[in-house]
Amino acid sequence: MANDECSHSAIQGLPGASQALQTSEDENQKSCWVCFATEADDKLAAWVQPCKCIGTTKWVHQSCLQRWVDEKQRGNISHKVLCPQCKAEYIVVFPSMGAFVALLDSLEEITHKISPFIAGGVLLGSIYWIAITYGAVTVMQVVGHREGLEMMESADPLVLLVLLPTIPVTLISAKMYNWEDSVLLFLRKYCAKIPALAYILPFGNVEGDRSSIVPDQTTNANSNSNAHMSPTRIFCSALLLPTISTIIGKIFFRSIKNNLHRTILGGLTYITIKGALKIYHKQMLYIRHSSRKILDYTESNLKLYRGSNVPGRAETVSATRDDSEQVV
């Protein structure tokens, strides 16, 4: 006994041995890295060493780690959970609940995997039947209600199932091509010097590199307009075209008895007028953009172009500024 006390006191007298003994005692001290409680705080708590960490961070309460794993998995028990320090995967085991429960688990997993495919099939099927319905309504609207019904009743059902859905697809595909841009490009390239066209389509009077008749700028403008086309606008314009064509045909071409011919003429009239207005509007916007000027940052320009919102200056600004100038 005396020899043990002497050897223990001798070990404590050595600085290195004392530090090693203290380190060993710290490592054996259990401290939960989740709640920071020690073994002395709750002697009945279950402890676990779930990863490759060493030192005091290797210990954690079983209950604390269970809550932490639940937060990481969020209800998905198959989700792997790693240690935030050493990145070791926790070994999580479940008790065996029997073959019937395993079968239910397999059915649940299979249902979870095939549900997106079922939902996608239902969605595609709904779109397909909506397209068939729209195609049938369009046929009766364009050809005539009675004539359209007789035509579809006499046709092969398989042919109808194939051709009717192509009607909305064809309308939307045709709407995605901007023929107005091609016409505008042709007019800018070849018809700018014809005096008669200046009264119909203005070409502007722009100097230098910002001339309104520059092939590269026109091409860029067309590509930008195609890139920024609204999908909802294309969709609505394409699907409303048969209805608008029918209405215009009944208003302006009443003398034509054939419903199909009347609707075709109404559609051509609508497309032509709308295209002409669109071409004119695009050209005017192009001229406005090409004729843009950046003024000097002077006091007079600030008062003239930025002082319209200041009380008492509206009348002065309107009297001195040109009406053709627009402040952006």
From TrEMBL:
Pathway membership, UniProt: Protein modification; protein ubiquitination
Stored Gene3D superfamilies: Zinc/RING finger domain, C3HC4 (zinc finger)
Enzymatic reactions: S-ubiquitinyl-[E2 ubiquitin-conjugating enzyme]-L-cysteine + [acceptor protein]-L-lysine = [E2 ubiquitin-conjugating enzyme]-L-cysteine + N(6)-ubiquitinyl-[acceptor protein]-L-lysine
Matches recorded under SMART domains: RINGv (SM00744)
A single cellular component GO annotation: mitochondrial outer membrane
Keyword Ribosomal protein: no
Membrane topology, record value: Multi-pass membrane protein
EC class: transferase
Protein name: E3 ubiquitin-protein ligase MARCHF5
Organism: Parnassius mnemosyne (clouded apollo)
